[in-house]
Structure formats: C-alpha cells, structure tokens
Amino acid sequence: MSEPREEHLRDWLSFAEELGLTPFYRRRAAPQGSPLPARKISLPVIEDPTPTVPMVSMAHETPQTASLFGEVPGHVEGDTLEKIRADIGDCRRCKLWPHRANIVFGVGNPRAELVFVGEGPGADEDAQGEPFVGRAGRLLNRWIESMGLTRDAVYICNVVKCRPPANRTPEKDEVETCSPFLFRQLDAIRPKLICCLGASAAKALLGKPIAITRVRGQVFDYRGSKLFLTYHPAYLLRPHSPTVDREIRQDLEKIRTFLSA
Ligand code: URA
C-alpha cells in the first residue's frame, strides 16, 4: 500500500476508534452495543478497507458512507416544525433562558434538501430571533450562494436555541436539554444532507467530540439523511491558514455536487 493511502487508512481507523468503533477488523461482524450513550452504532463492515472509506466520492457515483447510527431515538411520528416550535414554547428548561431576548428556532425551507446546523445564537441572532444573521451569517450566505442556492432554499438552525452568555460554547446540560428539538427538526425536514458547521454541531449530532480537521469533507449516514462536516464560518473570520480556504471551497463543491447528483 502506498504511503498516502496507508496514512489515510490510519487516520480513518483512529477516527473510528474515537467514535467507539473498536475493535475494528476486516471481515468481522459488527459488535453488539455501543459505547455512545443512547445511540446504537452499526459498525461499517469493511470488506476491503481502502482510504476511500468512509470518504465519499460525490462525483456521479453511488456514495459510500459509514453508518454511524442504527435506531433513531426521539423520533416523533408525523412531527412538523410548527409542532416542535410549539413544544419549545417559552422554554425555561435549561439555564440559558434568562440570558436570551428571543428563542432562535430556525429559518428556511421546511422541505430543504440541505440543512445547516450551527452552534448557538450570537448577539445579532438573539436580537432578531433568526440564526446566522451576523458576520458569520453573512459569510454563510456567501457559501450558500456559491453553491447556486439561496437562503430561502435551505434550512438553518443551531444546536441550542438560546444565546449562551458572552457567546460561550454551550455546556453539556444545555446541549442535552435542547438537542432533542434539533433531532426532531432534522427528522421533520428529512433533508438529503445535513451540514454541521463546526465542532459543537458535529459533537451534538455524533454524540462524541471530534476534530473537524480530521473528518471534514466526509459524509456519514445519519437518521435517514447524510451528514457532512465542515468548518464553522466564524472560524474563517479569524486568522487562518490558506489551506482552510481551499478546504472550504472543496467542501462546498462536494455539497453542490452531492445535491445535484
Ligand atoms: N453562530 C452560530 O453557530 N449560530 C448562529 O446562529 C450564529 C452564529
């Protein structure tokens, strides 16, 4: 095996290990049970492990994806975004509520093929009650337009619906309290692709901390949709390497190609 292929395979194996997909053998059945709380993992059985697994070649091919989850916890039959918003109500379930001006539920097309999931509202979002309307939002709009889409065509939401004080990262209990509403939103929309923007969204949906740099650009099966991970736009607003710009362009192109396939 060539060196880059070997390195790629090593990366994938250690990522699988981080997700609890271990031990990980060739031609073996998936082990029962999962170290991930409340989530059942179906281990991808790799007949011929190559560096292309679980990366998806999105260009006019049948996607090869890794299945991370089996059963779908928290699914509500016949759910709609209206019902979910009504259930959230004037939420006081976690300690974020005293800090908010508005609950930022989500915006866009309830039948979107593409859903973006961010971390949580910032000051602008809190003031306007709409996700991604500040600086990061304007950059996200440019990403959306670069894929030939409009903000109205996609759906945009966050892991937590209330602004964390001083824009800090949402804490575990806050994510645990709020993420069931996110899961319901994703189930109600059933998009072709869910794009996690940054590590908080990825962690909430995968149930484990992950390094975005390691898994960005890859596609996974997730609750009947595909899950894609890339950088948070706010990351691109800070000083960063030109490599990141190149990677973002590649990721957006992959999403565009995937949606049009
Ligand atoms: N960052 C997020 O993660 N979400 C928003 O809505 C705005 C900024």
In short:
By secondary structure, the protein is an alpha/beta fold. Helix content is 37%, strand content 11%.
User: Cofactors and ligands present?
Assistant: uracil
CATH class: Alpha Beta
What letter string, H or E per element, gives the SSE order? HEHEEHHEHEHHEEHH
Gross CATH architecture: 3-Layer(aba) Sandwich
Overall mean pLDDT stands at 81
CATH topology: Uracil-DNA Glycosylase, subunit E
Q: Roughly what percent helix?
A: 25-40%
- Beta content comes to 5-15%
Number of domains: 1
Structure description:
- The chain has 261 residues and is an alpha/beta fold.
- The chain has a single domain, classed as Uracil-DNA Glycosylase, subunit E (3-Layer(aba) Sandwich).
- 37% of the residues lie in helices and 11% in strands.
- The chain is built from nine helices and seven strands.
- The chain has helices at 3-18, 81-88, 123-128, 135-146, 172-189, 199-206, 212-215, 233-237, 242-260, and strands at 66-67, 107-108, 114-118, 155-158, 193-197, 219-222, 225-230.
- It has a seven-stranded mixed beta sheet, sandwiched between helices.
- A hairpin with a 2-residue loop joins strand 6 and strand 7.
- Helix 2 packs antiparallel against helix 5 (172-189).
- The protein is globular.
- Mean pLDDT is 81; it is low at 15-71.
- Bound molecules: uracil.
- Uracil is lined by residues 118-122, 125, 131-132, 134, 136-137, 158, 234.
Descriptors:
single chain, 261 residues, alpha/beta, Uracil-DNA Glycosylase, subunit E, 9 helices, 7 strands, 37% helix, binds uracil
How are the elements arranged and paired?
Elements: H1 3-18, E1 66-67, H2 81-88, E2 107-108, E3 114-118, H3 123-128, H4 135-146, E4 155-158, H5 172-189, E5 193-197, H6 199-206, H7 212-215, E6 219-222, E7 225-230, H8 233-237, H9 242-260
Bound molecules: uracil.
